[in-house]
Design a protein that fits this description.
The structure is a homotrimer. Chain A is an alpha/beta fold. In chain A, 38% of the residues lie in helices and 14% in strands. The two termini of chain A are 15 Å apart. At the A-B interface, helix 2 and helix 13 of A face strand 2, strand 4 and helix 4 of B. Chains A, B, C: This is N-succinylornithine carbamoyltransferase.
Chain lengths: 320, 320, 320
C-alpha cells in the first residue's frame, strides 16, 4: 500500500478486514514494527476519534507520533498555486508538505471539504497537494470527499456483527442537520459497501443524492421507510446537497432515526461515525438502545488505523 | 482506588502520603508499571501544572498519554441530557465519554465550575457525567468543587515541612481577586486538612464562607489577623461567594498576604496552588521570600499524580 | 554548553558543525542518552519546523518531551516585574519558569519580538526572564533578536554544499514583506557567518540596516545587484527597520529574488529559514528551482537541535 486515501488503495478488502480483526485480537503483537519511524498527524480540522485512535495505533506499533494542529500551532496556509503571497497566508501548503517530507516517514492529514467551491472539493484541492508533493506515503484522516479509515472500521464492525449465512441488507440513510455538512462519509461508506458482500441501499430525500461518481449503480431511494424495510444495518449520516452544492433543500418528512422506524427493520444494528447530534440525526432511545453498535464502531477506528499504518510500514520496509 | 475525585476515594491518608513520599525519592522505580495502558488527559479548561505534572507522572510509570484539549481540538460539547442538538453543540459529552471508554484505560478530566448555575456546579454537572458514563477509572484534574490531586500534593508538602512534635496550625486564608473564582481549591484543601493531624482554621471575609458541606465543623474566622496568629502554614487562595453564588461582596480590609502579616505567624510557610496574581493575592516579597514553599508544592504535583495513577493501575491489574 | 541562546554559547563552531554532521549520518546512535530526562518546549508563538524538529531531536535522544502552547493551553502571562496583577494576566512569567524548573531538566522557549517596544525587544524582555529565573539549561527556539538553532542548521547546510577550496561568498539579502517582521533571523545569521570561514555581505535597502551590535564590521550594501555579484550562497529574509523600529520605509526597487537576479551570482544556492511568502520574498521559480537548498536547510533543523540537546545533556550529566 503506497498511500491510503480510498478503498482503491486496497488490493484485497477481505484480506485487510481479516488482518484488522487479527490486530484487534492482539494490538500489541508488533510493538517495535514502527521503531525509528515517524508519522506526522496533520489536522487542518477538529478531531476526537481520529486524533486519539491514530495516536493509539501508532503507539501500538512503536511509531513516533508528531501531531500538528496546523491552524492553531503553525502558520496560516496558502493553498493556491502561483499566488503572490501578500495577504493573510504565511506559508504555502506545498512548502509545509516539503518540510514534512524531511521530518516524517508517513504523513497523515485531515482536510475537510471547504463547502464553498464544489470544484475545489470534488478535486480534493488540499489532499491532492499532499499526494502531489509528498515524497512519503500519505494517509487520509478524512478529506473533502472520503473518510477511508472510518469506512474500513465500518467494514470491520459489520463483519463482527454478522454471523448469518446470507448477505446482510445495509442501508445508508440521510439524517437531518442544521448546517451544510460534507458528503465525505456518505461517499466513502458507499464505495466500501460496493466492494463488500452486502445488499446495499442508500436512502435520502429528493435533492440530496450523492455524487453519481460515488453511487454508480447503487440503488438510491427517496422514501426512508421503504429503504429501512428488512434492513440488517442502518448507517445514519447527514450530508448537504451535492447537485446544488452545499445547499440544504427543504425536507418535509422527518428523517430522524427513531425506535419506531427501527421497527421497520430486521432488528437492525445502528451505526454512525460520530460526532452525532442527538435527537436531530437520531433519537436518544436509538443512540442509547441495544441496537446501537456506534461505540464499537468508534473502537474499531484504532484497528483500522493500525492495519493501514502496518501495511504502509511493510511497504516502506520492503524498499529498504 | 476505583476513581479519584476527592479525599473520600482514599482508604488511608497517612499511607498514601507515605507512598507518595517514597515515589518522590525514586520516581523511576516502576518505569514499566503502566506499559500497554493508556491514560487520556481531557482538558476542558486551561492548565499548566496539572497538564505537565500529569504527563511526567504517566511517563514515569510507562503509561501511554493521550492529551485532548477538548474545546480547541475536538468538538463543541453538549452537556444537557435529552436536548435536541440543533444549536452550536456538536457532540454530547456522554458520547465523548463512551468513546474515551473505548480508547483509554484511565480517564482524567479537568472540568472547572461554570460559575453560572450554583446548582450545576454543586452537582458537578460535568464530572458527574464522567462518573456515570465512564467504564474505566476516572481521575479529577480539578472539577467544579474539588481539586484533589492538588490537595494530596498539599498534604505531602506540609508533611515534608513539619518536623516538630506537635500539630501544626494550618490557616486557609482568602485573598483578593478581580474575578469570581471557584471554591474548588478551598473546598478541597479543607476536606483534606480535616483528615490530617493538624489544627486547621479558615479565614475569609463576611459573605465568603465556603459551602457548609465542606467546612462542616471547621472553625471559620472573619478576622484575618486573628486567624494568622501563630500559624505554621498559610494557604492563600481566592474564591467568590458561595451563598450569593459567584458574587464578590465588597471587602473593606486588605486581605493580601504581606510580610507584615507574616509577622503575626509562627514564621509560617506560605502555600498557594498557582497560578497566583502577584501583589493582589500576595505580595512579591512573600512570593519571592524564604517562607514560600509554593514551587515545592508545584513540584509535588508530579508525585501526587504518580501515586494516584499507580494506585489506579494496581486496581486495574488486580482485576486482570 | 550551559545555555544555548546565541553563537556565543558555542566554544568551537567547527567542532559543533562536525558533530552535527556526524549526528546526521546516524541520528539514532545515542537513543538512550536522554532517558529519564525531560525537555519542556514552551511556545509563546507559532511554530512548524522548530516544533517538529525539536520533538524529533528529543525522541532521537530518548528525552521525554513536554510541549506547551503557553497562550492557548495555559494561562495569560504577565511579563512586567512588580506589577499589581489586577488585569488580564493570570500568571507571572517568573512563576511559570520556576514551575518549569521543577518539571524539566531543560527548558526550550520560543519568544518572538513583540515589535512594539524597541527597548523590550533589544533587551530580550522575555528570554532574559528565562535566563534569570531558570535553574536548568535554557535553549532559545527563537527569541526577540536571535534564532540560533536556525543559524546552526544554516551553517551545516552551507558546509554540506561547499566543496571548493576557497571561501564561499555568502549574501544575506533583504526581501519584501507586507508586515513588520523581526530582525532575529538576520541578526543571528550575521553573527554565525562572522564566525564561519566565508566572505559575508549583507544587502538591504536604505533604512533597513540591522542593529550595529550584530553587523559590527560586516559589509552592508544598499544595492542588491552589486551584493549578489558572484555570490555562492544567498540567504533571503525580510526584516523591518531597526533604527525607526518596526517601521517599513518605502523601497523603490524590487528586492524579490528571481531567476534573473540569480544570473548575477555564481550559480548561487538559495536559502530561507521558512515560512516564506512566495512571489513576494522570492519567486516560485527560485523556490522550486534547482538552486534552492531550502528544504535541506529545514531538514538540518533536526540535527542542529539534536546536537545542542546532546551538548546540554553532556553538561547535565557531567554534574551528576
Amino acid at each position: 500500500m503506497k498511500n491510503f486515501t480510498s478503498v482503491y488503495d486496497i488490493d484485497n478488502l477481505q484480506e485487510i478486514i481479516a488482518k484488522t480483526l487479527k490486530i484487534k485480537e492482539n494490538p500489541l503483537e508488533n510493538p517495535t514494527k514502527g521503531n525509528g519511524k515517524t508519522i506526522g498527524l496533520v489536522f487542518l480540522n477538529s478531531s476526537l476519534r481520529t486524533r486519539l485512535s491514530s495516536q493509539i495505533a501508532a503507539q501500538n506499533l512503536g511509531l513516533n507520533v508528531l501531531t500538528l494542529n496546523a491552524a492553531q500551532e503553525a502558520w496560516n496556509l496558502e493553498f493556491a498555486d502561483g499566488t503572490v503571497m501578500n495577504g493573510d497566508t504565511v506559508e504555502h501548503i506545498k512548502d509545509a508538505i516539503e518540510v514534512l517530507n524531511q521530518y516524517c516517514d508517513i504523513i497523515a492529514v485531515r482536510c475537510f471539504a471547504g463547502m464553498k467551491s464544489k470544484e475545489d472539493d470534488v478535486n480534493e484541492s488540499i489532499l491532492s497537494q499532499f499526494l502531489k508533493h509528498a515524497k512519503v506515503p500519505v494517509i487520509s484522516l478524512e478529506s473533502a470527499t472520503r473518510h477511508p479509515l472510518q469506512s474500513l472500521a465500518d467494514c470491520i464492525t459489520i463483519t463482527e456483527n454478522w454471523k448469518e449465512n446470507r448477505k446482510p441488507k445495509v442501508v445508508l440513510t440521510w439524517a437531518p442537520h442544521i448546517k451544510p455538512i460534507a458528503q465525505a462519509v456518505g461517499n466513502s461508506f458507499t464505495e466500501w459497501m460496493q466492494q463488500m458482500d452486502v445488499d446495499f441501499v442508500i436512502a435520502n430525500p429528493e435533492g440530496y443524492d450523492l455524487d453519481k461518481n460515488f453511487t454508480k449503480d447503487t440503488k438510491v431511494l427517496h422514501n426512508q421507510d421503504e429503504a429501512l424495510k428488512d434492513a440488517d444495518f442502518i448507517y445514519v449520516k447527514n450530508w448537504s446537497s451535492f447537485e446544488e452544492y452545499a445547499v440544504m433543500p427543504k425536507v418535509d418528512e422527518n428523517w430522524m432515526l427513531t425506535n419506531e422506524k427501527l421497527e421497520l427493520t430486521n432488528n437492525a444494528k445502528v451505526m454512525h461515525c460520530l460526532p452525532v447530534r442527538r435527537n436531530l440525526e437520531l433519537s436518544d432511545e436509538v443512540m442509547d438502545g441495544e441496537n446501537s453498535i456506534i461505540y464499537q464502531q468508534a473502537k474499531n477506528r484504532i484497528f483500522s488505523a493500525q492495519a493501514v499504518f502496518s501495511e504502509i510500514l511493510d511497504e516502506i520496509n520492503s524498499k529498504n
